[in-house]
Specification:
The structure holds 2 protein chains of 2 kinds. Chain A is mostly helical. Chain A has helices spanning 2-12, 20-49, 58-65, 67-100, 104-118, 121-132, 137-144, 158-182, 186-194, 199-210, 212-228, 231-237, 244-254, 258-292; strands spanning 50-51, 54-55. In chain A, strands 1-2 form a two-stranded antiparallel sheet. In chain A, a hairpin with a 2-residue loop joins strand 1 and strand 2 (54-55). The N and C termini of chain A lie far apart (54 Å). Chain B has a domain at 62-231: Orthogonal Bundle (MetI-like fold). The chains are: A mainly alpha, B mainly alpha.
Chain lengths: 293, 264
């Protein structure tokens, strides 16, 4: 007891502490991460880069040489772009209105925004499937409005996946942008308007400009989650609207082709890592512009 | 509000907000309401009214055992990742050493890694090493996903914590361990609870790792729902999903009420 007591007593002091205590504090987390995170990730990379025990690019050549996989990648990126655009169009106004609301209503609406995040993506996608069904309400409404002249099939199409996935990711966009708009002083908007700018112009020139890097960061976040989402494309898209994520699942679980599954996963990972580097840069720019202001 | 809500631009903003919230809530409302229909197939809006499907959902032991499996895994994951995560966050907030920011980046990095990529690499890892079997694999996998959330929630709270409070307690004769439990823990409690709840919900709702790693004999509830939905639109599955939504709703209201009570 005295020994551990002594160790612990020194821990509280600001002076040099024996290296043992921090090591003990970090050990559980470090071990878990090294064994279950770093090692598996490295073996994913090596699995994709080896063939019959030899370093080889054969799996990547297979990916790059097959038009099917180019299409797959293109469809995945298209999904990411469309989902990001929808979440921006809806997310920017909602986040702005919530950030400028004074009443208790704002807190309530913020909770309402968070709520879908607590419901499993499987359940939310299921809801969309019911809505998308051949005689579903979406198809009937569009027909009643005269926008389409035949029953619209959204199930098992990329359009359906886009609509469903944008709903799954919209809360994240709103929450990210809410923080950004909250940090922008509304007096700046008043100033612009009192100098003669119309409200929409004031918002574009002042608020959206200041929020620019935050908007970029939110978009990159949604984009990288959209291209790697699995549950929604798997359920709403099925085999007919295949994307990278569902192809990776097929290769792993159904084909048991580990090297190629690893290759596809690595390609996806490269895209996501590149985006998160950009995301970090966008946040840095934001931090810098704030410190200048 | 800087914009007059009655101006055309204000009305446009309001309209977009109404559309956005309808869009957010609609699919969730559907799974709650659709199984109330009396038609035998899922339709929205539902026709007729029956509680038959909800009763069937509660009666089906398959869903119940899935629910219990998810509950157990979520509980284990929440507990373990909270312990690991709070320890790591404590270390990161207290010690300054070369490479600390690197360690912090490592601990938070699973947040940017797609769960799907982690699922592939962990399946590969567990298959090759033969480490653990069954539910243990999924618990470990979820710990990797949930620990970063715990660290991210508790780290700012720990950094804000005024260390002179602890020093004062120790000057008054408290041992470091006493001051940890009597001073530090109560102050950062809210952060720890938030991290723990987040870890639990993440694990409970998670389906990708569960699809790859859950033992076939003991699927979690999201996996059961996922597989059932793929096979067909059974009203019972919708009722199970509906029950989950209602449960989440109750949980969230309770959490808000308790949270508000704590702040007062």
């Amino acid at each position: 007891m005295t020994a551990t007591g002594d160790l612990a007593r020194q821990k509280g002091r600001s002076g040099p502490s024996p290296a043992v205590v921090p090591v003990l504090i970090f050990a559980p987390c470090l071990i878990v991460y090294l064994v279950l995170f770093v090692w598996p990730q490295l073996s994913l990379l090596t699995t994709s880069a080896f063939d019959k025990g030899q370093l080889s690019g054969v799996h990547y050549v297979r990916f790059l040489g097959d038009e099917y996989y180019w299409e797959l990648l293109g469809r995945t990126l298209l999904l990411g772009v469309c989902v990001t655009l929808i979440t921006l169009v809806l997310g920017v106004p909602v986040a702005y209105v919530l950030a400028r609301m004074q009443s208790r209503m704002a807190a309530l609406l913020l909770i309402l925004t968070t709520f879908p995040l607590l419901v499993s993506a499987v359940v939310r996608s299921f809801g969309w499937m019911v809505l998308f069904f051949r005689d579903g309400i979406v198809s009937n409404t569009l027909q009643a409005l005269g926008l389409v002249d035949h029953p619209l099939q959204l199930m098992y199409t990329l359009t359906g996946v886009i609509i469903a996935l944008a709903q799954v990711l919209l809360p994240l966009m709103v929450l990210t942008l809410h923080g950004v708009f909250k940090s922008i002083d509304p007096d700046l908007e008043f100033a612009a308007m009192s100098l003669g700018a119309s409200p929409p112009l004031a918002l574009c020139l002042v608020t959206l400009r200041l929020a620019r890097s935050g908007i970029v960061a939110g978009s990159l976040l949604v984009f990288s989650l959209a291209i790697s989402a699995f549950a929604t494309p798997g359920l709403v898209g099925g085999a007919r609207a295949n994307v990278m994520a569902t192809a990776i699942y097929e290769q792993t679980i159904e084909m048991l082709d580990w090297p190629f599954a690893s290759t596809l996963a690595t390609v996806l990972l490269v895209f996501v890592l590149a985006l998160s580097l950009l995301y970090g840069a966008a946040l840095d720019r934001r931090a810098k512009s704030e410190s200048v202001a | 509000m800087t914009i007059d809500p009655r101006s055309p631009f204000g009305l446009l903003l309001t309209a977009i907000c109404i559309i956005a919230f309808a869009y957010l809530i609609l699919p969730i409302l559907v799974v709650v309401v659709a199984p109330l229909g009396d038609t035998g197939y899922l339709a929205f809006p539902p026709k007729g009214f029956t509680l038959r499907w909800y009763a069937a959902a509660l009666d089906d032991t398959r869903y119940l055992s899935g629910f219990l499996t998810s509950l157990q895994i979520g509980g284990a994951v929440a507990l373990l990742s909270t312990i690991i995560g709070v320890l790591a966050a404590y270390g990161l907030s207290r010690y300054d050493f070369p490479g600390r920011s690197l360690i912090e980046a490592l601990f938070l990095s699973p947040l940017i890694l797609p769960t799907l990529v982690l699922a592939v690499s962990l399946s590969l890892f567990f298959t090759r090493t033969g480490l653990l079997t069954g539910t243990g694999r999924l618990v470990l996998a979820h710990i990797i996903v949930c620990t970063p959330y715990v660290i991210r929630v508790t780290l700012p709270v720990l950094r804000r914590f005024d260390r002179t409070l602890e020093e004062a307690a120790q000057n008054l004769g408290a041992s470091p361990i006493q001051s940890f439990f009597l001073i530090l823990l109560p102050v950062i409690k809210t952060g720890i609870i938030a991290g723990c709840v987040m870890a639990f919900i993440t694990s409970f709702d998670e389906v990708v790792l569960a699809l790859f790693l859950a033992s076939p004999g003991e699927p979690t509830l999201p996996v059961i729902i996922y597989s059932a939905v793929q096979l067909g639109f059974e009203p019972t599955v919708a009722a199970v999903s509906g029950l989950l939504v209602i449960l989440t709703c109750v949980f969230m209201v309770l959490y808000q009420i308790l949270g508000v009570a704590r702040q007062d």
